[in-house]
Amino acid sequence: MFLIKEFKFDAAHNLVSYKGKCEKLHGHTYRLVVVLDGVPDREGMIMDFLELKEIVNEKVLKKLDHSYINDIIKQPSAENIAVWVWEQLEKSVRRENCRLYEVQVWETATSGVVYRGESLEGRSK
């Protein structure tokens, strides 16, 4: 079973290792989706939505919302933001009955990335 919680934050960035219009300073209203994989506990929940909200607020949103993301992530592409969010949350949401399954970072309504903690190293091509 999957537990899903969505968040929004506003931030600015520029892609310094990129040639194109996104190398210039610009901003987004990002949509962040956090997905946990688990089984309901004795209270019938994978995790209380309020607890997940508090963790994401503390570990991610307080740092990224209304920030210049380049001060936090060297090359803040959606891909690199997703990896950074995963690293901030993975240990904090892990429980006996659940784990972080997926992080989605959406820059626009139609453009986003999904990260599941995997790396490209070790994957067969």
Automatic annotation (TrEMBL):
Record EC number: 4.-.-.-
Pfam families in the record: PTPS
Example GO biological process: tRNA queuosine(34) biosynthetic process
Cofactor note: Binds 1 zinc ion per subunit.
A single MF term (Gene Ontology): metal ion binding
Pathway the protein acts in: Purine metabolism; 7-cyano-7-deazaguanine biosynthesis
Enzymatic reactions: 7,8-dihydroneopterin 3'-triphosphate + H2O = 6-carboxy-5,6,7,8-tetrahydropterin + triphosphate + acetaldehyde + 2 H(+)
Enzyme class: lyase
The keyword Transferase appears for this protein: no
InterPro entries: 6-PTP_synth/QueD (IPR007115), 6-PTP_synth/QueD_sf (IPR038418)
Keywords of the record: Lyase, Metal-binding, Queuosine biosynthesis, Zinc
Binding of Zn(2+), residues: H13, H26, H28
Active site as annotated: C22, H66, E107
Cofactor(s) the protein requires to work: Zn(2+)
PANTHER family from the UniProt entry: 6-PYRUVOYL TETRAHYDROBIOPTERIN SYNTHASE, PYRUVOYL TETRAHYDROBIOPTERIN SYNTHASE
NCBIfam families: queuosine_QueD (TIGR03367)
Family to which this protein belongs: Belongs to the PTPS family. QueD subfamily.
Protein name listed in UniProt: 6-carboxy-5,6,7,8-tetrahydropterin synthase
UniProt source species: Fervidicola ferrireducens
